[in-house]
Amino acid sequence: MESVATLPLIKTNPRVSSIDVLRGLVMVLMALDHTREFLHKDALLYQPTDLELTTPELFFTRWITHFCAPAFVFLAGTAAYLSGRKKTPRQLSSFLLTRGLWLIFLEITVINFSFWFDITFMTIELQVIWAIGVSMVVLSGLLVLPKQLILGIGLCIVFGHNLLDSFSITESGLSSLGWLLLHQRQIVPLTAHFQLSVLYPVLPWVGIMALGYCFGELYSHGFRTEQRKKMLFWLGMAALVGFVALRIANGYGDPVRWTMQKKTLYSVMSFLNVSKYPASLSYVLVTLGATLLVLRWLEGKHARGLNFLAVYGRVPLFYYVLHFYLIHLLSVGYLLGTGVPWPEINFQNGLGGVEPGQGLSLEMTYLAWILVVLTFYPLCFLYNRFKSQKRSRIWSYL
Questions:
Q1: What's the pLDDT at 172?
Q2: In the prediction, which pLDDT does 202 show?
């Protein structure tokens, strides 16, 4: 089970409306992929990016959600920078350290239970909240360095980590756990009844958050709106041009090369089919490039639809945790509705009780996604209003 979502979990004050709207947009898209994973009938039969089995509709349903994790991790770094304007460096470092440890704890407890509904916790999967938590812990230590050095470290990680692709560990166990957590996706059986699934190796995400932190300078008081929009445009275009150049060269930047297919559309799909686990350079360039251009477009925009999205973007952790529970409950409800008796739903099957081949068509999955998103709007609206009235620091962790 994978999660493609990522969440910038630091409250900005004063808020940057374009960042809230973008977070909300990405969270809505994130729910699409999670709804597909739990409810689409083919979700457990093959990967939606498998060009031998997928359809264009299914491929792009999955591909569009690739933008979620990089945008959220990057903007989490930006939010850290903005939060630091009202804190001393020591206070910001302490906050990021404790916030990161709190997110790691949430990942392996509350969030993992939402994935599996398994009270024995036979599988602990390290997904995007874990990656954000570790990245915050690392960033808390990097804050002792000048911003130019933090920027350099972030660039070196993002642009250089694919040099490690040729090194792979085949054995899994405690001796290799450090490397797997850093740069290699793998399931690690720790005991006969317990396994650790490393879905989000953290190295590239640490680099992305460091870059997002430095990017926050564009939202400081020294930058005028037009100056920022110009920077967003050129940074976004440079990232997209870099992505195209790397993919045309078909060498460095992604461990999976693209190939010509029998149909033009499938060749385009192959070109776009970049690696997320771990996040390749090509993956980061295409997703963050588009993210920066969308941020530029949102700058200064005010519309009812954008305010709708901002509601989700202001309470990301609340939405993230609860939407998994709702979607998983819907999948269980579907099984019960199709006549599967409760005792036959096996929550220890490694799939959260979901059965391969059981589920909705893609069209009905989209309808379920829309219903999930609309269900959470009033909840997010009320929770944001409640939270905004609180002054205790504890609410910055929720």
A1: 67
A2: 97
Specify the length of the chain in residues. 398
Alpha carbon distance 263, 109 (integer Å): 45
Q: Which of 14, 70, 52 is nearest to 284 (CA)?
A: 70
At 312, list the tokens: 């989700």
| Edge-first strand listing for the sheet containing 194-198 | 123-126, 194-198, 186-191
Instruction: Output DSSP code: residue 194.
Output: E
Q: Scan for tokens 């000048």, then name that residue.
A: 146
Tokens of 261: 């297919």
* CA–CA gap between residue 79 and residue 8 (Å, rounded): 7
- Is 280 in contact with 252 (CB distance < 8 Å)? no
Question: Pairing state of beta strands 123-126 and 194-198?
Answer: parallel
64 pLDDT higher than 60: yes
For CA atoms 392, 393, 394, 395, the dihedral sign is: positive
Per-residue pLDDT tens over the stretch 228-254:
999 999 999 999 999 999 999 999 999
Structure tokens at 135: 């990245």
Contact call for residues 323 and 31 (beta carbons, < 8 A): yes
